[in-house]
Amino acid sequence: MPTINKPKSKKPKTNNRYDSERRRIYNSERWRSLRLRKFAANPLCEVCEEKGLTVPAEDIHHIKSFMGTDDRVTRNQLAYDMENLMSLCKRCHQMEHNKL
Description:
Layout: H1 16-26, H2 29-41, H3 46-50, E1 59-62, H4 72-79, E2 85-88, H5 90-99
Antiparallel strand pairs: 1-2
């Protein structure tokens, strides 16, 4: 029986430094604590709330990406800055990332 050689799927290229740095921040106790404080301060989706809707927040979004800089000090400042965070529902969080 003949075989059909399917092209191998291409895995997206990843930047190991980017991935490991991102994981380091998101797995830190400092991030987990900040995330819980943000949920406590803003339990509703901030975008939906502006539209007069009451939708529980499920995600915390960085307004300005902390991985957008190569400077480690700036990266940490952005990652852990409460003013750089938004409480969002899943739908609004996905829409924010689709804008980028």
